[in-house]
Amino acid sequence: MTPSPSPSPSPSTSPPPSTSPSTSTSTSPLAERADRPAPAATGRAAALPRRRTPAFALAETRWAAAATAAFLLALPLQLSGLGAWWWGPLYAVAYAAGGWEPALAGLRSLRSGTLDVDLLMIGAALGAAAIGQALDGALLIVIFATSGALEALATARTADSVRGLLDLAPATAVRITADGGEQTVDSRELRIGDTVLVRPGERIGADGMVLTGASEVDQATITGEPLPVVKGPGDEVFAGTLNGTGALRIAVRRDPADSVIARIVAMVEEASRTKAPTQLFIEKVEQRYSLVMVAATLAVFLVPLTVGADPTGALLRAMTFMIVASPCAVVLATMPPLLSAIATAGRHGVLVKSAVVMERLGRVDAVALDKTGTLTEGTPRVTDVVELPGAGPALPGSGSTGPGSTGPGSTRPGRTVLGRAGLLALAAAAERSSEHPLARAIVAAAREEGVAVPEATDFASTPGEGVTATVLGRTIAVGAPARPAAAAQTTASETTAAQTTASGDTAAADAAADLERRGRTAVVVLRDGTPVGVLGIADRIRPDAAATVRDLTALTGAAPVLLTGDNPRAAALVAAEVGITDVRAGLLPRDKVAAVRERQAAGGKVMVIGDGVNDAPALAAAFTGLAMGRAGSDLALETADAVVVRDELAAVPALVTLSRRARRLVVQNLVVASVFITVLVLWDLIGSLPLPLGVLGHEGSTVVVGLNGLRLLRDSAWHGRRRADSGLAPGRS
Length: 733
Fold this sequence. Notes:
- The chain is α+β, with helices and mostly antiparallel strands.
- It is built from 24 helices and 25 strands.
- The strands form five sheets. Strands 1-16-17-18-19-20-13 form a seven-stranded antiparallel beta sheet, with helices on both faces. A seven-stranded mixed beta sheet has the order 11-25-24-23-12-21-22, sandwiched between helices.
- Helix 18 links the parallel strand 21 and strand 22.
- Helix 2 packs antiparallel against helix 3, helix 9 (328-347) crosses helix 10 (355-361) and helix 12 packs across helix 13.
- It is elongated and about 110 Å long.
- The relative contact order is 0.14.
């Protein structure tokens, strides 16, 4: 057969010589049905050990829950008109449970010369209670306690994922000693120059280079490639990646502390510690506002005393000032639109982790997309079934119903074809005992089309080449287009050599080359050495990918960039189909981070959309990060600011539009709240503002801005027409 181009990664299904030392065999004594469950995935879905800190394992969560429970018990008792002895102690519990930690933290900050808004809020809550407004103060305490608990939980979950990532690298490794023996050692003890043995199905313990052996290695956690990559002598491998069916001897090239996995962890932690400019600005404003509030409240109380005012009246005026000037109204003016937007996004399958994230989503002006699992589904599927002439009669009962099929026993002048169903039946029978992703794709295709799969025996597999099996008394080989013909002839010996014709080889090579030009992985199926068909397998592009790229381009004013660890050819084909022109392929995680930081250094606010461990550092370094939820790794899901739970890529532009609407409502609410606070403060300072009227004005402004923010709970906020949103300048929304 004429060798045809093979895409990277190369198909790992091709018939081996029967004498290959690395061949493993197994038999299937009983016929199995086509709907047999596929072997468990060993790649993306099972990549990371699951670690998750329970919410109530955190002290912040327990105290916030206690404060909320006490508040919810006290509120109906107070509203029902019962005496203060009924609800007062419950409010006291809410104050103590939710307020002691921020009060202690505030006092510690005060000792170091910093006055933060947490201490000011505690003071405002206590002041409200002192003048009989215990409900207002308790509500303020609950809001701050809940916010702190959510922040602590998010931090703990991110730490869980980072620790889980470190668990990818095995705890022990088999080191080859100087005399050729084997020694099991702690992976952390490996040093540059050591030689380690990695058996089939084991995780690789260190970054290094293959010395001997051949196997397929699932390195989706590092590069994001959807299929295992064939590795042989001289090829680089990474710690934490999963070895396939062959044994490898690997020379260690990096210390464990400097492996790619360790560097991913370091980059995630570094990016998580970095504060955004907006956050630093808020901290500066918070400090100044706190100082101004304390000084103003003291002035309102002390100045009247210098001219002989009644101390009780001065204290009442000062407490009223603290209530009406309290930032509660501003906080609540900001939160309802953002929380309503979060709730609406959640109803439509998008989890936004905080109000800050929701606000930032509307400010993005550049988008970087991962390929595998983001623009594509992340799972290889059979996309093409090419039947070759001269295959002989179809299998009994294997009538074909798929597109392009000619049916069982159909004829052409002087030639016959096996039929689509017959071809799938032979390939699935041979591949059913294999756990390679390509094999799972073939078996799944047969199951989906209702094809009856016959019994297979004498199964044999060679890493990096493929499989052979005996099906209905015939030798079936499935493998890469460049190798299967010769291998199958060796396996079936002289009895099949005569059946391999030059015309069949040429037809198979032409079909394989055509599939590979279209971005498919070509797999040739042979029966007794004769090519009977070629299967095209690919990671299918999501149906909504092209529309999402167009919408994001319209929203941000710039076309998205594709950042992928996959090979340039595969990346270019996907990019061309979805409408992306800026493609950067073959990237390791640090390269993705560098690309994101380069764009942000030029003033861009980059949103990264990804799903794998290799995307996590870029998700953490980006202005905001979104993870695809269905196939996403734990680390990506925890590092990302938002998760598309339903795996609908079209939800991303809808989310950006929703965020921009929320930001506009925030601005409206801040104007309303500021007007109320300014009027009430001036009234209290210049005139005489009665406390009930001050509380009514304060609470009234909260109700007005709260109801305004709840507008985003309507479904029309998500499904409505974008109108001006799509053309809104990102930095001005």
